[in-house]
Amino acid sequence: MAKRIKQYIVWAIMAYAFYFLLDHHFIYYQHQVRLLKKMEPSLEYTFFSLENKKPEKILAIDLLRWDGIGDLLVEYELIPEEKRWDLENQFDLADEADGE
Q1: In angstroms, what CA-CA distances link 89 with 27, 31, 60, 72, 75?
Q2: Other Cβ atoms closer than 10 A to 42
Q3: 8-55, pLDDT tens digit by residue?
Q4: Which of 27, 18, 17, 19 lies closest to 64 in space, CA to CA?
Q5: Where are the strands (E) in 1-100, listed by range?
Q6: What sign results for the dihedral spanned by CA atoms 36, 47, 89, 74?
Q7: What is the pTM of this model?
Q8: Is 47 within 8 Å of 34 (Cβ atoms)?
């Protein structure tokens, strides 16, 4: 009986770990890993590096932009706050124009 309970506990821990992977972006930059909560669970952009990428290319990715990667770009001083807002608005307007 105790062995069966241990198995259930192990399975529950593994299921939670998998769900945690689905529910977060792991953003890597300069030997640091930051977690960014996803809007909905998926495997898209689960692991993402900011190294050698332009802020424009990063913010062009809808899923990352919607989940708040712009805040990290400002925090890491890769772009100023004003440029972040300009780029986010530019890409959001482009998305709206494509949707019509």
Answers
A1: 22, 30, 11, 17, 19
A2: 11
A3: 999 999 999 999 999 999 999 999 999 999 999 999 999 999 999 999
A4: 27
A5: 24-29, 32-37, 47-49
A6: positive
A7: 0.82
A8: no
Contacts of 81 (CB under 8 A, 6+ apart): 74
Pick from 16, 51, 21, 54: nearest CA to 36: 21
The number of residues in the chain equals 100
Residue from 14, 20, 13, 22 nearest 45 by CA:
22
What domain count does the chain have?
A: 1
What residue numbers bound the domain in which 86 lies? Answer: 2-99
Best CA proximity match to 46, nearest among 31, 67, 30, 70: 67
Spatial neighbors of 1 by CB under 8 A, at least 6 apart, are none
